[in-house]
Specification:
233 residues, alpha/beta, TIM Barrel, 8-stranded parallel barrel, two-stranded antiparallel sheet
Length: 233
């Protein structure tokens, strides 16, 4: 299963064109992603026919949230589902960099019957092998991880351990630095069934401005197709 992270509607189109099985929709990809607008969710659902999982993240930076930020997050989960989200992507930690279990439980309850992915906040947890079983107990269906390293290839040993010890009770979704050159070997080494890519390219604008940046990132359908083909070897 190939999930592609998309920061806007044109990336969503390119992701499906390249053969993505699922979209993780966000905004502000340059800061690691924030909750997209309801309009973006609705339009994505109208434009493509693959599942749209929506990132729920109220701000950039760390994953330790204030009470108001938690309230915002709960509202964003509810409104994203109303807009058509097929799944949601969440993450929250406490001051000790352990899972914020009470808040995660509340987010899962708000999501109801739709699947929930726990994002790369997992890679900051102090005891990942314990944390993943806590996520299973909370009803999380998928965990996105780079194996607590700067990319999934470097973190492949932990990813393989997580796949082995959880025995299919949760989907281990390998992300960060996954590409057509390493995806086949990464899947084989770790026993993975799911991978996550951004496969983004820089879209350059010839309209130079000293006030505002004009370039932006967009998913590359060719790279996505290359990744998909290497996954199917």
């Amino acid at each position: 299963m190939l999930e592609v992270c998309c920061g806007h509607i044109e990336s969503v189109i390119q992701a499906q064109k390249g053969g993505a099985d699922r979209i993780e929709l966000c905004s502000a990809l340059e800061v690691g992603g924030l909750t997209p607008t309801n309009a973006a969710i609705t339009l994505a659902k109208q434009t493509v026919d693959i599942p749209i999982y929506v990132l729920i993240r109220p701000r950039e930076g760390n994953f330790i949230y204030s009470e108001l930020e938690k309230q915002q997050t709960i509202l964003e989960i509810a409104s994203s589902i109303e807009a058509g989200a097929d799944g949601i992507v969440i993450g929250a930690l406490n001051d000790s960099l352990d899972l914020d279990l009470p808040f995660i439980r509340k987010m899962v309850e708000t999501a109801g019957k739709i699947p929930v992915t726990f994002h790369r906040a997992f890679d900051l947890t102090r005891k990942p092998k314990e944390a993943i079983f806590e996520l299973i107990q909370l009803g999380i269906t998928t965990v996105l991880s780079s194996g607590q390293e700067e990319n999934a290839w470097k973190g492949r040993a932990l990813l393989a351990d997580l796949v082995e010890i959880t025995k299919g009770e949760i989907n281990v979704l390998a992300g960060c630095g996954v590409n057509a050159k390493n995806v086949a070997e990464l899947i084989a080494y770790c026993g993975l069934k799911q991978v996550h890519v951004s496969a983004k390219i820089n879209i350059h604008s010839d309209h130079h401005s000293e006030l505002f940046a004009q370039d932006f990132y967009q998913a590359d359908s060719k790279e996505i197709a290359n990744v998909k083909s290497m996954m199917n070897l």
